Structure formats: C-alpha cells, structure tokens
Amino acid sequence: MQIRSPRVLAALLLASGLTAVGANTASADIHLCRSDPILHLSNGASVHVAVTVNDSPSDVQTIQYVVHGPVGTSLQSISPSAGAARDVVTYQADSAGSYSVTVTAQTGRSTSVSVEEHVPGVGQASGSGPSGTAIALSVG
Q1: Which of 52, 57, 56 is nearest to 29 (CA)?
Q2: How much is the pLDDT for 136?
C-alpha cells in the first residue's frame, strides 16, 4: 500500500501513536491488610471484629484485640483461627451486658486503621485512627 497524501500519512501516524499511548496504562497498587476474627461466646453470642489496615500485609507487625463481654461468659472459639503470629486476641468477661473491643495495630510506618464491631442482634459500631493508637468500640 502506497500513501501519496501527506495528510493521510500524518493521520495514520497520529492514530498509531495514540493507539500505542493508549495501550500503556498506568496503575497504582492499593495495599489492604484485613484481619477478621469472630469470637464465639458461651452465651451463644458471636462478636465479629473487622480490621482493615491501609498498608501491605508484610508491614503489619501486630494486631492486638481486647474484647470485653458479659460477666459469666467465656470464649468458646475464634474463627477464622487467630493463628497468624501477628494477631493477639484477649477475651475478658467483665461487662454488665455490653460487648466492647479495643484494637491496636502496629505497623512499620504511619498509616490508617479502620475497625468494625458487630454483634448480631445487639448492634454494631465502627471507628478509625492512625496505626499505633487504641481504637475502642462498644455495642449493647
């Protein structure tokens, strides 16, 4: 194919250049580390705790959970199992009927942490803060 018109040649070159530019797309990585233990208690209640750390999982050093439930209850199980070396879950049966959780996430750099607590049939709460600070929530 022979192109004789400079306008057609310029248009073809421009179109092929735009196609090549359009093929190179930029991307940005968003790293989220989620940790979502569910504590099953002896009174039949389940305390769901969802933590989102806006950082790569390798940067998360520890996530500490302190969960408080009604006096006379005990922790039966945790699912998914808190088997990750960075997760520390403590349960204390020391409240007058409410459920509360305090979460502290330590990371290698300053980042944001979001926490949600949900107890089916009782209520839910959410909060956020910088890594390294205690985020306390309570329902019930």
Answers
A1: 56
A2: 92
Q: Please answer whether residues 100 and 115 qualify as being in contact, where contact means their C-beta atoms are separated by less than 8 angstroms.
A: no
125: burial class by Cβ within 10 Å (0-12, 13-18, 19+)? middle
Selection from 54-68, 83-97, 125-139 with the highest mean pLDDT: 125-139
How many residues comprise the chain?
140
Residues β-bridged to residue 118: 48, 124
Concatenating the DSSP letter of every residue in 63-98 gives EEEEEEEETT--EEEEES---STTEEEEEEEEESS-
Looking at residue 33, its pLDDT comes to 56
State yes or no: pLDDT of 35 exceeds 70: no
Where exactly are the structural domains of the chain? Answer: 33-139
Residue 88 backbone dihedrals phi, psi, to 5 degrees: -125, 115
Paired sense of beta strands 87-95 and 60-70, if any: parallel
Rounded Cα gap, residues 108 and 132, in angstroms: 10
